[in-house]
Write a structure and sequence with these properties.
The protein has 568 residues and is mainly beta. It has 3 domains: 194 residues, Jelly Rolls (Sandwich); 173 residues, Jelly Rolls (Sandwich), CATH 2.60.120.260; 169 residues, Jelly Rolls, CATH 2.60.120.260. The strands form 6 sheets. Strands 1, 2, 3, 5, 6, 9, 13 and 15 form an 8-stranded antiparallel beta sheet that branches. Strands 4, 7, 8, 10, 11, 12, 14 and 16 form an 8-stranded antiparallel beta sheet that branches. Strands 19, 22, 23, 25, 26, 27, 29 and 31 form an 8-stranded antiparallel beta sheet that branches. It is globular, with a radius of gyration of 26 Å. The relative contact order is 0.12.
């Protein structure tokens, strides 16, 4: 048995950005872990301690452990730390260099699993790649111990981490038997952390608020105007009775804490003007709202979802206890609150809004919202077959993949994909589940492109015609922003994809994501986002800028010659 051996996980940061190791792993360390915080001990029978399971049957907490039987790939147990009560010791722990995870678990004797790992969510970002702490295929990591006994794995974040796994821990997804399909059991005795610090108070909001501005908002997009009686305009309500749209407003009676009205923008039809709006520095939210006269509510706020990430803390635009913000106006009249964004935290594509009008207020007050608008935004709609639409070619592009040589996968890495093949200039494969993806990073030969010169990404891809509800997703990482996360993502919605079983060119203006800056360090495509085994095919992947199509260029040149001759 390997005991007290320090395994240097040199390939993990290598997998992300070609730099030094992100952490070290010890198997069965001699010294105990002091002053730890337990994320899960499971010492009380039947108490899952807020952990949930996925693709696990017969899950139970018994005899001091959580256990179950795997029934599918991507099995996991997970803990949403951000949803725990504020007084829970597992909340607001900040991971720094030297912080530790420690897991004690048991695999089946002669287990067929070859890898165990977990995905932390740090500062709201789901971190990819995961922290792989045991792998039979990686000599830099301990093996999976298949003797049927408990073993301890201690993971210490290294000084060269470059922030990838540092920050406030908001969640854990633990894939104990990674990519194992079924019929093995697992047993986890504990999951602990140590050498963390208390997370600091979030910085001041990255916006300014005006109350009843004197100038009107021009060129706005209305997320909700409610000018037609009984038409909620796709907004839903929670903890609200007697919700109604009447006389140009949405209104209701609050009946509990965390009341809100919300709009799921990504579920709207693709031709809805509320879809595809990118919030940038200087973008504006404007809300016209009326609170009850002598209201007891003290603050009002909303949570935007940007690039798939639910943003916390929220945008609090009125607070009686914060001198930097306007008060809640308790005169029973309508007032306008205009919020202008200043910095990166709330920037990106707006995917949803949750508006907590009377925040943390119990019941028996009414609200009335006249409108909720945005302005100074950029519309980022993906182009499909763009040369036939806008006559512009991708110029000065850098090829990330061409696959021109048969059987040469060009060092792209597969996750949940099988039957990968390169033939006739086309790369193809079949998904194993609902989360197939392939990626390449600079350490594997991905060109390191200065993204200031490459605002667009373009690829030519074919889905089968029978799949009509799948998106195509793009993820990236850069030297300025290492680590792929939901914030570093773009998607081609299913409604934009021609379902004809043919190749199509997809172009996306990546530069409208504020994190698309610096030097490209990793690129990933998810060809399907639904559970299927149907084949996909892709011709190329490129990044670059735009120039007019050659015939248009010729026209421009000829027109210039004509003007020149006329002036002679």
């Amino acid at each position: 048995m390997k005991k007290s051996i320090l395994f240097m996980a040199a390939l993990i940061m290598f997998t992300v950005c070609g730099q030094a190791m992100a952490y070290t792993v010890e198997l069965d360390p001699i010294t105990p872990l002091d002053n730890y915080i337990s994320l899960g001990e499971w010492n009380t029978e039947g108490d899952f301690e807020d952990w949930t399971t996925f693709l696990v049957n017969d899950s139970a907490v018994y005899n001091g452990s959580i256990t179950g039987r795997v029934v599918g790939a991507d099995m996991n147990i997970s803990l949403d730390v951000s949803a725990l009560p504020n007084n829970d010791v597992r909340k607001e722990n900040l991971f720094v260099t030297g912080s530790v995870y420690e897991i004690r678990l048991r695999f089946d004797p002669f287990t067929e699993t070859t890898r165990s790992e977990f995905f932390p969510t740090m500062d709201g970002s789901f971190k990819v790649p995961p922290i792989t702490f045991a792998s039979n295929a990686d000599p830099a990591l301990p093996d999976i111990e298949n003797d049927g006994l408990f073993h301890v794995y201690r993971i210490t974040l290294d000084t060269n981490d470059t922030l990838l796994y540092l920050g406030q821990l908001d969640g854990i997804r633990f894939d104990a038997l990674d990519d194992l399909t079924s019929n093995e059991t697992f047993e986890v005795d504990y999951f602990r952390i140590a050498d963390t610090t208390v997370a600091p108070v979030p910085p001041a909001p990255s916006f300014i608020v005006e109350l009843d501005p004197s100038t009107p908002l021009d060129n706005y997009v209305s997320l909700g105007d409610w000018n037609t009686n009984d038409e909620f305009e796709d907004w839903t309500t929670r903890m609200v009775n007697d919700a109604a749209v009447y006389d140009g407003s949405i209104t209701g009676l609050v009946v509990g804490n965390d009341m809100n009205i919300s709009l799921n923008i990504i579920a709207l039809s693709s031709n809805d003007v509320r879809v595809g709006n990118v919030m940038v520095t200087g973008s504006v939210y404007e809300i016209r709202v009326r609170f009850d006269q002598y209201t007891e509510c003290k603050r009002s706020e909303f949570f935007p979802t940007m690039n798939g990430i639910f943003k916390f803390p929220p945008i609090m635009f009125a607070n009686n206890d914060d001198p930097a913000l306007p008060d809640i106006e308790g005169d029973g009249l309508f007032h306008v609150y205009r919020i202008t964004l200043l910095s990166n935290f709330y920037l990106g594509k707006l995917d949803a809004i949750r508006f907590d009008i009377l925040d943390d207020f119990g019941s028996n007050e009414t609200f009335e919202v006249d409108y909720f608008r945005i302005a100074n935004v950029i519309t980022n709609v993906p182009f499909v077959d763009p040369i036939t639409v806008d006559g512009e070619l991708l110029s000065n592009y850098t090829s990330l993949a061409e696959w021109d040589t048969d059987d040469d996968i060009e060092n792209w890495q597969m996750v949940n994909i099988t039957n990968e093949t390169v033939s006739g200039g086309i790369f193809s494969g079949r998904p194993l589940n609902a989360d197939p993806w392939f990626y390449k990073i600079s350490s594997l030969g991905l060109p390191q492109v200065d993204l200031a010169d490459a605002p667009y990404a373009e690829f030519r891809l074919k889905q089968v015609s029978s799949i009509t509800d799948s998106e195509i997703e793009i993820f990236f990482t850069t030297t300025n922003n290492p680590g792929m996360s939901g914030e570093m993502r773009a998607s081609i919605p299913a409604s934009k994809i021609p379902h004809d079983g043919e190749f199509h060119v997809y172009r996306y203006q990546m530069s409208q994501n504020p994190l698309w800056e610096g030097v490209l360090d990793g690129f990933r495509i998810d060809p399907y986002t639904v559970d299927t085994t149907e084949k996909f095919e892709i011709d190329y992947i490129r990044v670059g800028d735009l120039i007019p199509e050659p015939t248009l260029l010729l026209g421009i040149i000829l027109a210039g010659i004509a003007v020149f001759r006329k002036r002679l």
